[in-house]
UniProtKB/TrEMBL annotation, chain A:
<dbReference type="InterPro" id="IPR001539">
    <property type="entry name" value="Peptidase_U32"/>
</dbReference>
<comment type="similarity">
    <text>Belongs to the peptidase U32 family. UbiV subfamily.</text>
</comment>
<feature type="binding site">
    <location>
        <position position="191"/>
    </location>
    <ligand>
        <name>[4Fe-4S] cluster</name>
    </ligand>
</feature>
<keyword id="KW-0831">Ubiquinone biosynthesis</keyword>
<comment type="subunit">
    <text>Forms a heterodimer with UbiU.</text>
</comment>
<dbReference type="Pfam" id="PF01136">
    <property type="entry name" value="Peptidase_U32"/>
</dbReference>
<comment type="function">
    <text>Required for O(2)-independent ubiquinone (coenzyme Q) biosynthesis. Together with UbiU, is essential for the C6-hydroxylation reaction in the oxygen-independent ubiquinone biosynthesis pathway.</text>
</comment>
<keyword id="KW-0408">Iron</keyword>
<dbReference type="GO" id="GO:0006744">
    <property type="term" value="P:ubiquinone biosynthetic process"/>
</dbReference>
<comment type="pathway">
    <text>Cofactor biosynthesis; ubiquinone biosynthesis.</text>
</comment>
<protein>
    <recommendedName>
        <fullName>Ubiquinone biosynthesis protein UbiV</fullName>
    </recommendedName>
</protein>
<feature type="binding site">
    <location>
        <position position="174"/>
    </location>
    <ligand>
        <name>[4Fe-4S] cluster</name>
    </ligand>
</feature>
<keyword id="KW-0411">Iron-sulfur</keyword>
<keyword id="KW-0479">Metal-binding</keyword>
<dbReference type="GO" id="GO:0046872">
    <property type="term" value="F:metal ion binding"/>
</dbReference>
<feature type="binding site">
    <location>
        <position position="39"/>
    </location>
    <ligand>
        <name>[4Fe-4S] cluster</name>
    </ligand>
</feature>
<keyword id="KW-0004">4Fe-4S</keyword>
Amino acid sequence: MQLTVGANQFFWSPEDWGSSYTALAAAPVDRVVLGELVCSKRLPFYQDRIPAAIETLSAAGKAVSVTSLALITLKRERKLGAELVGTGVDIEINDLSMLAYLPEGTSFSIGPLVNVYNEGSFAWLAARGARSICLPPELPIDAVRILAQLGRRLGVAVEVWGHGRVPLAISGRCYHARRQGRSKDNCQFACENDPDGLDVTTLEGQDFLAMNGVQTLSASFACVDHQIEVLQEAGVTGLRLSPHTGDFTAVCAQYRARIDGHVARGAVADALLAAYPDRHLSDGFLTGARGADWSGPLP
Amino acid sequence: MVMEIVCPAGTPASLRAAVKAGAHTVYCGYADETNARNFPGLNFDRAEMRAGIAFAHAHGAKVLVAINTFARAGAEPLWHRAIADAATAGADAVILADLGLLAHAAAHHPTLRRHLSVQAAAANADVINFYAATFGVRRVVLPRVLSVPEIAAINAEVEVETEVFVFGGLCVMAEGRCSLSSYATGQSPNMQGVCSPASHVDYHEDNGVLSAKLGGYTIHRAAAGEPAPYPTLCKGCFTTEGASGHLFEDPVSLNAETLIPQLAKAGVHALKIEGRQRSRAYVAQVVRNFRAAVDAQAAGKPMPEGMLARLTEGQAATAGAYKKTWR
């Protein structure tokens, strides 16, 4: 089972953004997706660092993909999407608009924000050129199993959301800006001080969601530590790890050790809870009654 | 040209009421997980759909069948049968969101008109033209993330018809791309056709304060005498860094009736009313108002204003993303 690091969902300083990829070059991961997923207004801050990051990661033997935005609406966002084509780097599609720009016969990857719920969508995308598909995080294990088997028959890699706050929704409205009484067009980068997203609790103080500009995520960190054997048996070929602050290279190494059988079930979860004592974990979309559920022992 | 009014019907009685009240078109779905309003007691069985379509056609109205959830892996035949049965029943179009279902319908029912559901969240001209060229989609229901000038710009670049929501429930997230409900309850719009389902709602009263929970999460608290809106997740009251409020959206619903002239000018073909879960009396009243409005618009007469205010959820309404400041 391979490890893919997904695009950073948050707004980091250009320096932190750049150094995170330098660190990832030494991490035991197979593939790295980078670029802006959530908000086109963030991209100009670090865009000039993308080529160097690709070079560093490629030189370290990682497969590299560049993501599209998750929601393409504006003219400059369409232009940005069209310009990704032809750079020679694999494109991870997270908005189907990209299919309007990619010529037939070009291969591509599908990211977790494209709705691939069934065999028909999967097979259609495979025929159009998808070589790797990260399934939507809300898919239950029964669906994952069916699509992983189809992926094996069609020669398409199948990834499952493995680690990090789960992307739950994308909007035209920026909630970070709204909170400050501003609109998206005049956001003044209200999201820049929340490198893991802003915690959203219930009125009773229960952890629930996280705000990240136009995106809404789970408060919990997804962690598939207790599902590794189930996912391997299902035929899943890769885990998607989503970057957060802290020692993310160490997090990648823990998942690697767990997959390779060097540490026992539960070791990754224990290490995560030790490193992020304020967080809780979830894996409920796969086998629970609801997404927020956790199949491991409660602290 | 009169803009087409597209009305919801959750029951055969609502369908007849909508047609009699002047709906040009009615949309409805089968009573299962193939449609995005899969609520108990709603929607049509096969015989009801055939009769409903015959009734509408006899009165000069059209019927669109919404098959707009994402087919469940291992159960695609349920969705394929819905498309085939809609075709046989004489539906004027099917409303689809799923790539696989669009490809299936285009291949197996080429003469059945295909509309792209709002659940596909096609938010720019390039992707709309892709759906038109690839799957022969003839009309696109635009996601509720676009302003009126953006809708006008899209219409200038696409050949297909566009349909926009003008009244009723308002998703604040891009439709078809939201798992908030399944995170809290295990039931999602994309998979089960439900959002914030009543089966997972719980009310508790403590010292006169009524708490509404969804999947165990408190979504609202209302003191005695305060309105207690239904706990739809994205319209709940939450806390960040000590400050509480409706962080995503207030408990409002959409009312864009005053924007009809601008939407007409923007080249919008059809106006859609949300609410298959609503009563036939509600549907009939909303239809009558919007029919009067589009007829006035086409005749160059002033818009009848504000008639629908008391039908909106929680008595508060918004023009949503149609006004750019909403974002």
